[in-house]
Structure formats: C-alpha cells, structure tokens
C-alpha cells in the first residue's frame, strides 16, 4: 500500500502541475466534450474545462493517497 500511496501522490502532484500550467495558458486546453467550442472561438472555455479536469484528477488522487496511507500497517 505504500507503493500505491506514493504513486498516487506523484501522479496527483503532476496533475496539479498540469492544472497550473493550463490555467496560465502554457499548456493547451483539450477538453471540449465534442461540442466544437474551438470552432466557435471559445478557446477559453476549453482551457477552463481542462483546468477543472486536471484539478479534479489531482484532488481525487491525493485523497486516494491519503486513504492508502491511513490503511497501511505501521512498521
């Protein structure tokens, strides 16, 4: 479980980094739910949705890391 906890922490922190990079406009937005928002000139909506995706993924993985860390047997 320690390996799972450590893995979730690393991937969660990478997700937080990607959320920050997307919010700053360094990384492009890719989530548009197939609505064609980029064709309508609404690229900022794609960036907000992508930032929310990365942020939500980061939060879920960090919470999973906390859960795995609490059920690990102490040595």
What does this structure look like?
It is built from 2 helices and no strands. 68% of the residues lie in helices and 0% in strands. α1 packs antiparallel against α2 (43-71). The protein is mainly α. The radius of gyration is 16 Å and the shape is elongated.
| Annotation, overall tally of beta strands | 0
Sheet having the most strands: none
| Topology order in helix (H) and strand (E) letters | HH
Our Rg estimate from Cα atoms comes to 16 Å
Low-confidence stretches at least 5 residues in length (pLDDT < 50)? none
Mean pLDDT: 82
Spatial gap, N to C terminus: 13 Å
The proportion of residues forming helix, as a percent range, comes to 55-70%
Strand content: under 5%
Number of discrete helical segments: 2
Q: Which shape, going by the Cα principal axes? A: elongated
**Helix/strand structural class:** mainly alpha
List keywords for this structure.
75 residues; mainly alpha
Summarize the helices and strands and which ones pair or pack.
Elements: H1 2-23, H2 43-71
Helix pairs in contact: 1-2
Summarize the structure.
With 75 residues, the chain is mainly alpha-helical. The protein has helices spanning 2-23, 43-71.
């Amino acid at each position: 479980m320690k390996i799972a906890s450590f893995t979730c922490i690393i991937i969660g922190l990478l997700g937080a980094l990607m959320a920050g990079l997307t919010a700053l406009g360094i990384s492009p937005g890719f989530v548009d739910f197939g609505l064609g928002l980029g064709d309508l000139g609404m690229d900022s909506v794609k960036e907000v949705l992508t930032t929310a995706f990365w942020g939500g993924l980061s939060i879920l993985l960090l919470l999973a890391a906390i859960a795995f860390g609490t059920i690990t047997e102490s040595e």
